[in-house]
Amino acid sequence: MEFEEMWSDRLKSLKGNAIREIFKLLANPNVVSFAGGFPTLGLLPKKEISAIANEILTGEDAEKILQYGGTEGYSPLLESGLNYAKRFGVQGEIKNTLVISGGQQGIDLMFKAFINKGDVVLVENPTYLACLHILKTYEGVAVGVDSDEDGINIEDLENKIKTYRPKIFYVVADFSNPTGKTLSLEKRKAICEITAKYGVIVIEDNPYGEIRFSGEKLPSIKSFDKTGNVVYVTSFSKTIAPGLRTGIAVGDERIIRKMTIGKQAVDVHTSNLSQAIVDLYLRRGLLQPHLKEIIPVYKSKKEAMYGAIQKYMPLDRVKFTNPDGGLFIWGEFFDKSVDLDKCFMDCVTKTDTAYVSGSSFFAKEGITNCLRLNYSNASIEQIENGIKKLGNYFKENL
Ligand SMILES: Cc1ncc(COP(=O)(O)O)c(C=O)c1O
């Protein structure tokens, strides 16, 4: 059958998410990948999760868990998940809370609720690539806002709001993906004020806030929200396990209701088993000891990568971020004509090392002089060797 003429307008010109496509290329086990954003294997809490799962499935509520559940979420998790969000100063009640199948679903449901064809969403320059991808599936238009060392440029945000009249501003305040940057306290407050003033909804996406190596934890943008225009989205993917596909959204009751209606049409509800596991994991206080175990490992990997960058990268031509947390370091060549898309395959073939080219993280096409490096999914030795090979490749070829 010929499908080309049959695809929906929404998806016909859409290519696969760049990173998902790279995974296919990286099936070769010899390739060291700095491309993904996976938690470190060996650190996922499988012993605790399997004990909890066993307890749930042999307990008296086992059939309740295996039955259909409410779209809003499993009641105990609505409570424990909301308490978890409160760690970042998020205010709300159960009626403001929705369990989502990962943070990515939170973004999807927000766009589903608000975005018509041609509607503008402001994003950071660069931003989380799946946000751009999801937006395209709703035929929305992403416009990038410039970024300083401490995140979004507030003046540019206000200018872009006035020029484009966006419905939504999407932002990762803590250890952003891809840059690892964190928004200062002043900027969090300013974002709240400006977006409230112009009636722009904010999606504050916070999957990495708990993965902090140094510096003080900052209150969320949502904690300064006086008008209900900020929707806070968080996820247990990076703190417990991504395969559980569980997260929490907190926002204005009317928005949460609309997201719930959207979710009914997608997956009915997040897996009850995942929800019950996450709930008991949180209630039993297992998260803090787990974070205490994983944070030093991520920190040492970040330090190994940043240290290797200092030794091997051509730093007269490229600068890198040195994040206080999260999973990513971002590099930017000063020469904008450097094309990291074009040399990607050649680089992987010659060095057996993969990065993600930065072009997929920008609202605007054609920015090819940046790259994202992930440090959580490689060993310290692989990080040292991989960065050395990448550095040499860049010195010789770019
Ligand atoms: C900024 C950001 N938001 C959301 C997600 C989605 O994660 P999940 O759907 O697994 O919660 C990710 C995952 O990498 C991310 O980096």
Give your account of this protein's structure.
The chain is of the alpha/beta class and 398 residues long. The chain has two domains: 18-44 and 289-397, Aspartate Aminotransferase, domain 1 (Alpha-Beta Complex); 69-283, 3-Layer(aba) Sandwich (Aspartate Aminotransferase, domain 2). The chain is built from 13 helices and 15 strands. Strands 2-10-9-8-7-3-4 form a seven-stranded mixed sheet, with helices on both faces. β5 (147-148) and β6 (151-152) form a beta hairpin. α11 (287-312) runs parallel beside α13. The longest helix has 26 residues, at 287-312. The radius of gyration is 21 Å and the shape is globular. The mean pLDDT is 95. It binds pyridoxal-5'-phosphate.
Question: Helices and strands in order, then pairings?
Answer:
Layout lengths: L17 H8 L6 E2 L12 H13 L3 H5 L8 H12 L10 E4 L2 H12 L5 E5 L4 H9 L3 E5 L1 E2 L2 E2 L1 H11 L3 E4 L13 H14 L2 E6 L23 E6 L11 E4 L2 H14 L5 H12 L3 H26 L5 E3 L7 E6 L10 H8 L1 E2 L1 E2 L12 E5 L5 H18 L1
Parallel strand pairs: 1-13, 3-4, 3-7, 7-8, 8-9
Antiparallel strand pairs: 2-10, 5-6, 9-10, 11-12, 12-15, 14-15
The protein binds pyridoxal-5'-phosphate.
Pyridoxal-5'-phosphate binds next to helix 5.
